[in-house]
Structure formats: structure tokens, C-alpha cells
Amino acid sequence: MDYHFGKLYSPPMTPRNPSNMRPITLAVIIHMAVSLYCPHCNKHTALSIAPAEYEDGYGGTLHTGAIWKADYQRQWWIGVCNSCKQPSLVLNNGEVIFPHPLPSPTDPNIPKELARDLDEAKMCFSIQCYRACAVMARRCIQSACIAKGATAGQLVDQIAELAKLAVITKDIQEWATVVRWVGNDAAHPNKDEVKKEDAEDCLRLAEQFLHVIFVTPAVAKARRAARGKP
Ligand SMILES: [Zn+2]
After folding, report:
1. What are the sequence ranges of the domains in the chain?
2. What SS3 class is residue 24?
3. Interval between CA 134 and ligand 1 midpoint (Å)
4. How much distance in Å is there from the Cα of 48 to the middle of ligand 1?
5. Using one digit for the tens of pLDDT, what is the confidence trace for 76-111?
6. Distance, CA 103 to ligand 1 centroid (Å)?
7. Of 112, 154, 156, 198, which alpha carbon lies 20 to 30 A from 182's?
8. From CA 144, how far away is CA 210, in angstroms rounded?
9. What is the DSSP letter of 14?
10. What CATH topology corresponds to 112-226?
11. What share of the chain is helix, strand, coil (3-state, %, to 5)?
12. Percent of the chain residues past pLDDT 90, beyond the cut
């Protein structure tokens, strides 16, 4: 699962050169694209640089990519979704994208209430609200533990109960013990700042936790049913 919303890669793109136009006098080959969950259609797709067209002052038309070099370090460009063709404004290789890309979709096998919490955690992460992300991700894990019969008071103990019941593996239990914000209360005012890495750890663990508990058994059940086995 990838929580980085702007990943750079470079498919080739050539400026348009329709046959009814004069030959292109300024040919720019643009290598710039970003993969993401599109803020308009929510599909995992890529933004390609929008073609810009302007008059050359001599009756001709120039074609280039829609880029504005603000300074040596900042290059803004208009990205067009390869799927829905809607535009977004992008800084460099996706450091900033307007409108903000949507988080990865949550598996439909996860119960609705938990999926809503996980989606909220992802949304918080995507807008750099790391404390809120950690709180929501931690809440997801705790709700999943309770749904699976854990009765202990502390989250770490609830996770241990699930491992004892073989609902989760020892590996996941060990992973949970090293995720800092699972052992702490991210909502407590006296606690340390929640860093991006803390929030990301907590978010990854929460999603993996829900996958192991809800998605894997549902997929296995569907496969058994497809093969006519009880
Ligand atoms: Zn789109």
C-alpha cells in the first residue's frame, strides 16, 4: 500500500501536431507525469502534462507543455488525468497537487464503520494532520480487536489477546508493539508530537490489521464457495 500521493515517473509525451496546422516551430518533448488517486474520478491513474498552444505572432501556432517555471526550484504544471481528462495543478514531481489527490480506496470487505475510520485516517494523513491520523488509525485497530472478542483494557493487551486466539499472527503482534503510537495515546495533550513516520506506521498497521482480520477470510470464503466447497 502506498501513502505517497505523488510518485514521479516519465512516460514519453509529444506535443500535438495536427496535419491541418503549420509544422511545429517549437517542439518540446515533455517527460513529466505523476501517478496518484485522481482527485476527480478517484481512479489510480496518472496525470500527464497538458498541451499548451499559443500564437507565434507571425500567424503560426506554437505548442508546448503547460509549465510555469516560478524559479529554479519550483516548476508548476497543469496535469490532465489520463482517465477522466480533468485538470490539476502540480508542483514539480507532485510535491503539491491541487485539488488534493484522494487516498487509496479501502477494501469493501472491511466492515463499514471500520472502513469509515480508516478512510478518515488516510484523509488526515494526506493533508498532513498526523496526530489526527494516528488517533483514527489507533481507533481502527482497537475497534477491530473488540469486534474479534478482545476484552483487555489496553490496546497492546487486546492485540496480545488476538494473537493468543490466533486471529492475528505473531508477526503482526510484534509489528504492533514497535508502532509507537499504538502503545501511546496520540490524543493526549502531554504526549510528544506525532511525526509523519509515526502516523504512517500507525496507518499501515491499521490497514494491514483490518486486511488480516476481515479481507483475507472473506476472500478465502469466496474462493471456497466458487469451488463448491463449504
Ligand atoms: Zn480522473
Report:
1. 7-98, 112-226
2. coil
3. 28
4. 11
5. 999 999 999 999 999 988 888 888 877 788 899 999
6. 13
7. 112
8. 7
9. -
10. Four Helix Bundle (Hemerythrin (Met), subunit A) (1.20.120)
11. 40, 20, 45
12. 37
